[in-house]
């Protein structure tokens, strides 16, 4: 038995204290992109945005969006750093969160620039084993996901240039450079239609705290066909549309 003085060395509540964040400082909902540039695009849509904190590589803002108090933070690009920012959001008592991410397609018929609303996530990362029981599956809130999908479909009907809207399971991995044929085949056999490096951790932690959450992804590449689309204009269009979809979701929920 260890001689640790506390049950947990560092908690999400401890992190809140370090960055001087209080529950009353944040919004009812949070939009959580990965990169800082995507977060900054959301901030431009807010009225009277206030910087809650800037710590290491992460920055949080809260402002008003058409009558709703809304928070956004660049929530991390990988499962490990996403777990830190998600813990902060959960301990700040956010009432619901939407992840705005990017992903690799695991189906040939999916194109760069398509959008995917996640239902569940396969656990191929190293975070969720510390939050969830063996066999427990990170899942998006059903109401959030269905509303997000409907909002995305409405956006597609208004913009014919936007790619297709999909809905299904995601596989989250820590090993971007070991997405081998064998590993991918296993994920596909388990039902995954996309791969990323965040969503299982994000949904799993929100699930642990009983906070409704969902995720929408822009397809940046296709793991099956080998297509790379990070510089593809269709990907950038999907990324911008995803932000608008997230904001429109806030008006609907």
Q: What is the strand and helix layout of this fold?
A:
Elements: H1 12-18, E1 29-33, H2 36-43, E2 47-55, E3 58-65, E4 68-73, H3 79-91, E5 96-105, E6 115-124, H4 142-158, E7 165-173, H5 181-189, E8 194-196, H6 199-208, E9 213-222, H7 233-252
Parallel strand pairs: 1-4, 1-5, 5-9, 6-7, 7-8
Antiparallel strand pairs: 2-3, 3-4, 5-8, 6-9
Commentary on this structure:
The protein has 253 residues and is of the alpha/beta class. It has a single domain, classed as 3-Layer(aba) Sandwich (Rossmann fold). Helix content is 33%, strand content 28%. The protein is built from 7 helices and 9 strands, in the order H-E-H-E-E-E-H-E-E-H-E-H-E-H-E-H. Strands 5-8-7-6-9 form a 5-stranded mixed β-barrel. Helix 1 packs across helix 3 and helix 3 packs parallel to helix 6. It is globular and about 50 Å long. It starts with 11 loop residues before the first helix and ends with a helix.
């Amino acid at each position: 038995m260890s001689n640790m003085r506390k049950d947990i060395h560092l908690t999400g509540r401890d992190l809140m204290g370090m960055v001087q964040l209080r529950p009353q400082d944040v919004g009812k909902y949070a939009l959580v992109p990965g990169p800082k540039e995507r977060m900054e695009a959301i901030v431009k849509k807010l009225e009277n945005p206030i910087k809650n904190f800037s710590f290491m590589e992460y920055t949080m803002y809260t402002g008003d969006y058409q009558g709703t108090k809304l928070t956004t933070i660049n929530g991390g690009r990988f499962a490990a750093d996403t777990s830190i920012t998600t813990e902060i959001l959960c301990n700040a008592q956010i009432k619901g969160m939407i992840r705005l991410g990017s992903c690799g397609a695991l189906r040939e018929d999916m194109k760069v620039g398509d959008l995917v609303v996640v239902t569940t996530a396969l656990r191929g990362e190293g975070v969720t084993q510390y939050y969830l029981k063996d066999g427990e599956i990170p899942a998006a809130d059903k109401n959030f996901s269905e509303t997000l999908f409907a909002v995305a479909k409405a956006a597609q009907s208004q913009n014919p240039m936007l790619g297709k809207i999909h809905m299904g399971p995601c596989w989250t991995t820590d090993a971007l450079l070991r997405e081998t044929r064998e590993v991918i085949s296993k994920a596909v056999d388990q039902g995954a239609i996309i791969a990323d490096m965040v969503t299982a951790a994000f949904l799993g932690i929100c699930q642990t705290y009983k906070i409704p959450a969902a995720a929408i992804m822009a397809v940046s590449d296709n793991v099956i066909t080998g297509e790379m689309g990070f510089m593809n204009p269709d990907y950038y269009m999907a990324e911008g549309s995803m932000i608008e979809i997230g904001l429109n979701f806030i008006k609907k929920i």
